[in-house]
Amino acid sequence: MKQIKTYHHKKILVLGLAKSGVTAAALLHRLGAFVTVNDKKPFSENPEAQGLLEQGIKVICGEHPVELLDEGFELIVKNPGIPYENPMIQTALDKGIPVITEVELSFQISEAPFIGITGTNGKTTTTTLIFEMLKAGNKKPLIAGNIGTVASGVAEEATRENTIVIELSSFQLMGVAAFNPKIAVITNIYDAHLDYHGSKEAYIKAKANITKNQTEDEYLIVNADQNETIEIARQSKAQIIPFSTKKIVDNGAYIREGWVWFRGEKVVAVEKVATNIENILCAVAAAKLSGVENSAISQVLKSFTGVKHRLQFVAERAGRKFYNDSKATNMIATINALTAFDTPVILLAGGLDRGNEFDDLIPYLQDVKVLITFGQTAPKLERVGKLAGIKKIERVDNVDKAVPVAFAYSEPGDVILLSPACASWDQYKTFEVRGDIFIEAVHKLK
């Protein structure tokens, strides 16, 4: 890592722990800063804070006392989950104290260039695909961010020979100052996290931070099928690399005659795979810009079974293929899943009722032969299923019971897809728990 002197003898407050806060606090301490850590969890229940205290770092736990800011801090490193409306953050900004996230810190110390991936849907899959393609191409990638290891921890170990492939949320991107990836990727933008950002405009502005420091020497891979992403591209100084699932785009990635093309070159054949085409186009563009050979790209796509809970291939039973897309907590994600298949689908859907209807799904339900519903939204999904002309619709108690019912209605060649279009919290603690129950139920089938 770069032995920077930026923080030597500077008073820095790390607000909120979890993995990123612990890593950032320890790193800043090694860089010679006078670090104070403030976390809401009581010290007696906080092993992370206890460990930092043993390293000689000042720790204040149990609350976020605003008066702590009177101690003359020159910087705050904020946990991404803490909203900017938090009184500590608001007071700090009023006092003119800069607030960053540890992603910014990772960029400052890294000897390796970054490939940064953001967007509403598909970030994790795209990040994983890019990492695997670079690895297959012997480019020595490291993976970081929301997937993998804390960014500043990865950056501390990286050398000039590495490339850090990092998934970035809007929360993290709000706290960057100089962060500048060699390649930035924006998969898509839909309404999300508006409770945190306050408006779609603020959400888009946060996403746009991924390219705000890029120059004409860097690249921005951007969705050419969305007005929101096109507008971000217009404001960027980077070289724009568009991708499209709908049209041929100059200087970018697109589908033509069953192949992925990049800058006029036929790269890899795309048979129907359980990975969103948008994700593939993003990953191919980033890999080609990084000098990866077509053979390595093809090798990855042929063997890739998906990230767990994200259109993940689970198993084949008696000619039926099962896919776990429990991460599909909104309609857009379920639409993306449905468009990945051209075979008959038995769809398992339902979950938390957030007040919305599901009419946007109707055009994409044409290949759904059976709809199995569960959870609070079961009646709403059944209504749109009938409007879409699905002949067999059945309600069950939960995901565990949905699997054998779906199998009973299925035939060889069918896809049985868990893609709920809803959050899990009416029945399950997380979408991961929901997906694990689906996987277990598939493996219990006789």
Automatic annotation (TrEMBL):
<comment type="similarity">
    <text>Belongs to the MurCDEF family.</text>
</comment>
<keyword id="KW-0132">Cell division</keyword>
<feature type="domain" description="Mur ligase central">
    <location>
        <begin position="117"/>
        <end position="249"/>
    </location>
</feature>
<dbReference type="Pfam" id="PF21799">
    <property type="entry name" value="MurD-like_N"/>
</dbReference>
<keyword id="KW-0131">Cell cycle</keyword>
<dbReference type="InterPro" id="IPR036565">
    <property type="entry name" value="Mur-like_cat_sf"/>
</dbReference>
<protein>
    <recommendedName>
        <fullName>UDP-N-acetylmuramoylalanine--D-glutamate ligase</fullName>
        <ecNumber>6.3.2.9</ecNumber>
    </recommendedName>
</protein>
<dbReference type="InterPro" id="IPR004101">
    <property type="entry name" value="Mur_ligase_C"/>
</dbReference>
<dbReference type="InterPro" id="IPR013221">
    <property type="entry name" value="Mur_ligase_cen"/>
</dbReference>
<feature type="domain" description="Mur ligase C-terminal">
    <location>
        <begin position="309"/>
        <end position="422"/>
    </location>
</feature>
<dbReference type="Pfam" id="PF08245">
    <property type="entry name" value="Mur_ligase_M"/>
</dbReference>
<keyword id="KW-0436">Ligase</keyword>
<keyword id="KW-0963">Cytoplasm</keyword>
<keyword id="KW-0067">ATP-binding</keyword>
<comment type="pathway">
    <text>Cell wall biogenesis; peptidoglycan biosynthesis.</text>
</comment>
<dbReference type="InterPro" id="IPR036615">
    <property type="entry name" value="Mur_ligase_C_dom_sf"/>
</dbReference>
<feature type="binding site">
    <location>
        <begin position="119"/>
        <end position="125"/>
    </location>
    <ligand>
        <name>ATP</name>
    </ligand>
</feature>
<dbReference type="InterPro" id="IPR005762">
    <property type="entry name" value="MurD"/>
</dbReference>
<dbReference type="Pfam" id="PF02875">
    <property type="entry name" value="Mur_ligase_C"/>
</dbReference>
<keyword id="KW-0573">Peptidoglycan synthesis</keyword>
<keyword id="KW-0133">Cell shape</keyword>
<keyword id="KW-0961">Cell wall biogenesis/degradation</keyword>
<comment type="function">
    <text>Cell wall formation. Catalyzes the addition of glutamate to the nucleotide precursor UDP-N-acetylmuramoyl-L-alanine (UMA).</text>
</comment>
<dbReference type="GO" id="GO:0008764">
    <property type="term" value="F:UDP-N-acetylmuramoylalanine-D-glutamate ligase activity"/>
</dbReference>
<keyword id="KW-0547">Nucleotide-binding</keyword>
